[in-house]
Design goal:
GO terms for molecular function: monoacylglycerol lipase activity; short-chain carboxylesterase activity. Keywords: Hydrolase. Helix 4 links the parallel strand 3 and strand 4. The chain is of the alpha/beta class. 38% of the residues lie in helices and 14% in strands. Strands 1-2-4-3-5-6-7-8 form an 8-stranded mixed sheet, with helices on both faces. It is built from 12 helices and 8 strands.
Length: 319
């Protein structure tokens, strides 16, 4: 079933902004209160000394299994969209693990080197750790936005690790990350939002690690593309932002197979992730694509009661 909100909520910017802020943010926090109270912080020890932070919440029905969730870029475990679906799955009895990417949530101090979207190994390491520490007969994995890009790439590399995941769901992944970055740049409000969030994150690294003082000029950028062009050569093995973006694109060059059923949800009116980029996805056994007309970027308001359409979709897919 497609996401078809009432007419007044069909504007993509309204759905994006009010789907994650204002009254809905308060309502979701209230709904998630019991889940959050039952959650404990976990630090996962990955290879090469990398440490990642997460929140584990034991489920009320052990037979249900566990769902691992990944937030979007500059989001965190308490982002409205992630709290909302986590609470919905928790209410169904699932155990929940909300994994923070490097330098997201309260984790900036755990690693010296900064977050890069190309760092897939540590996400795979974290999945191994989570499944070893909290074994369940059923394991699901889902992500939103950049987290969705990561879970698709995890699904393509599970066999190499001998891992089993029963179902992967990717919601609004950047398939062509460079296109997504230009979409952010095009809209003043999103460009300003992501620049400010990234710079606040980088300020934390500057405060924690003395050698980051040499890079304070990055805080002066007001353009998301220019900031990538400046940041990427300093902190990655890529000479240009374009090369960096290509390295984690969801295309036939980077995806050769799916080692778990992987369902991808794209939105026609998403102001950040161009739905046209879905044509770049390779046709792989186990990968399915659903394109819905409305939802904005991780908004998915289904009505004036401010519930989220995507929560029900994920509950149905994992149940």
């Amino acid at each position: 079933m497609d996401s078809r909100p009432p007419f007044g909520l069909r504007n993509r910017h309204i759905n994006t902004i009010f789907g994650n802020n204002g009254p809905r943010k308060w309502l979701v926090a209230k709904r998630a209160k019991q889940m959050n109270a039952a959650s404990t912080e976990v630090v996962l020890n990955c290879s090469d000394g990398v440490r990642l932070h997460g929140l584990h919440t034991p489920g009320r029905d052990p037979s249900r299994g566990m769902i691992v969730l990944l937030h979007g870029w500059e989001g965190n475990a308490n982002s409205t969209y992630l709290q909302s679906v986590s609470a919905a799955l928790y209410e169904q009895g699932f155990s929940i693990f909300r994994l923070h990417m490097r330098d997201h949530g309260p984790s900036h101090h755990l690693n010296h080197d900064p977050f890069l979207a190309v760092r897939l190994t540590e996400i795979l390491d974290a999945m191994e750790q989570i499944c070893m520490i909290y074994p369940h007969r059923y394991v699901g994995l889902t992500g939103f936005s950049l987290g969705a890009n990561l879970v698709v790439r995890v699904a393509a590399n599970l066999a190499d690790r001998g891992m089993h995941v029963d179902q992967v769901v990717a919601v609004s992944p950047p398939i062509d990350p460079e296109q997504a970055a230009f979409s952010i740049q095009k809209f003043f409000i999103y460009n300003r939002y992501f620049c400010a969030k990234w710079q606040r994150s980088f300020e934390k690294k500057i405060a924690l690690f003395e050698d980051y003082q040499a890079h304070t000029d990055l805080l002066g950028h007001t353009d998301i593309i220019a900031m990538h062009e400046d940041f990427v050569p300093r902190f990655s093995n890529h000479a240009t932002a374009s090369s960096y973006f290509r390295a984690y694109a969801l295309n036939e060059h980077n995806l050769k197979r799916m080692d778990a059923p992987c369902h991808i949800v794209m939105v026609e009116d998403d102001p950040i992730i161009p739905v046209e980029s879905s044509a770049l996805l390779p046709k792989l056994d186990g990968m399915t694509l659903q394109i819905v007309p409305y939802g904005g970027h991780c908004g998915f308001l289904s009505g004036y009661h401010l519930n989220s359409w995507i929560d029900g979709v994920l509950v149905d897919l994992f149940c």
